[in-house]
Amino acid sequence: xxxxxxxxxxxxxxxxxxxxxxxxxxxxxxxxxxxxxxxxxxxxxxxxxxxxxxxxxxxxxxxxxxxxxxxxxxxxxxxxxxxxxxxxxxxxxxxxxxxxxxxxxxxxxxxxxxxxxxxxxxxxxxxxxxxxxxxxxxxxxxxxxxxxxxxxxxxxxxxxxxxxxxxxxxxxxxxxxxxxxxxxxxxxxxxxxxxxxxxxxxxxxxxxxxxxxxxxx
Length: 217
Description:
Residues 124-217 bind DNA. GO terms for molecular function: phosphorelay response regulator activity; transcription cis-regulatory region binding. One of its GO terms (cellular component) is cytosol. Residues 2-116 form the Response regulatory domain. Keywords: DNA-binding, Phosphoprotein. This protein folds into two domains: 2-117, Response regulator (Rossmann fold); 126-216, Arc Repressor Mutant, subunit A. A five-stranded parallel β-sheet has the order 2-1-3-4-5, sandwiched between helices. It has a four-stranded antiparallel β-sheet with strand order 6-7-8-9, with helices on one face. A two-stranded antiparallel ribbon has the order 10-11. The chain starts with a strand and ends with a strand. The radius of gyration is 18 Å and the shape is elongated. α4 (84-92) links the parallel β4 and β5. The protein has helices spanning 10-21, 33-42, 59-69, 84-92, 105-117, 152-163, 171-178, 189-201; strands at 2-6, 26-30, 47-51, 74-79, 97-100, 126-129, 132-135, 140-143, 146-147, 208-210, 214-216. It is α/β, with parallel strands linked by helices.
């Protein structure tokens, strides 16, 4: 799952990002509205964690632009203003969810996960294929009843493959969905993680390479 955190309080933004990364999410962080607008124009995000009162470009304007563009990204809006009227306003301009500050991180993470499952076609919290069971809430994986210990990156890549439901996924798409914006597009990181997943998932082989296309589960 690919997340953009747009929050002008640097400490809070980095704290949110670090926490979400522990849920095997790829997270980019920006600290003003203009940077958020630039990132949204370049990358496909599942969820935007958006501070309403961003400098440079207000969060309301970002919501309006995304609504007009028809973007698939889901938006959870954060704000210090907690009145019912302001929550209604935030939802009315395009936000999918609204969380007043201060908030419990566990609640934020749960809401982000729920929005991520709704970002495109509805996706269940437990994904299954080829004997693999991936619980995206508990961050646990098994194959044929055997627990499979996965690193956060391995978990993220396996989730993307399972979401594809048997369709091939390109290395570029895996980089886009499971790594953040700092990832080198020419890196061998995808191949390395795929090889580790194959070894951990065991026989019979379930991740297949389609030459010139990508990887298919």
